[in-house]
Design brief:
Layout (H helix, E strand, L loop, with lengths): L11 E4 L5 E5 L2 E5 L14 H20 L9 E10 L1 H4 L9 E11 L4 H14 L1 H7 L14
Antiparallel strand pairs: 1-2, 2-3, 4-5
Helix pairs in contact: 1-3
Length: 150
């Protein structure tokens, strides 16, 4: 007998003044904004920076949760992430896609574990991270509805 373990996560993004957006989920909230160079007030990360941060955070959590399974003592774990985005796609100046074309990350792992075990651990981590999987593979993204409020 198999158990279906589908969990639905939810968040709300509420546009404020200018391009400031308050994002909330459960009992938590954070601010998304754009830098001044892109018309914002620079009060928070922009959405594409938050996406990179979400990837690094997810990879870090997977590392923490599974390190013991691989007999890896994580003294420290940090991810540096960068992505290439052609703003001409967002501003409709050319036919390039508006999203990232490339995302690169580097794991900084402080451990006394042997290199082979760390490499096996990293391979597992990359295969297990839900955010990485969502970015790397197609997902069914669809508009669920439009509510016009008067």
């Amino acid at each position: 007998m198999s158990i279906i373990a589908i969990t639905t996560f939810k968040a709300t993004a509420h546009l404020q003044e200018g391009v400031v957006v308050k994002v909330s989920s459960r009992n938590f909230e954070f601010t998304i904004d754009e830098p001044k160079s892109l018309g914002g007030t620079d009060t928070g990360m922009n959405p594409v920076e938050a996406l990179l941060g979400s990837l690094g955070a997810c990879q870090s959590i997977v590392a923490r949760v599974y390190a013991k399974k691989f007999d890896i003592n994580l003294e420290d774990f940090r991810v540096e992430i960068e992505g290439d985005l052609d703003l001409d796609g967002f501003f409709k100046k050319s036919d390039v896609r508006p999203g990232y074309s490339d995302i690169r990350y580097t794991f900084h792992i402080k451990t006394d574990a042997p290199k082979e075990r760390v490499e096996e651990f990293v391979k597992f981590l990359e295969e297990t991270c839900p955010v990485g999987d969502t970015i790397a593979n197609l997902v069914n993204l669809k508009l669920n509805g439009i509510v016009i409020e008067n």
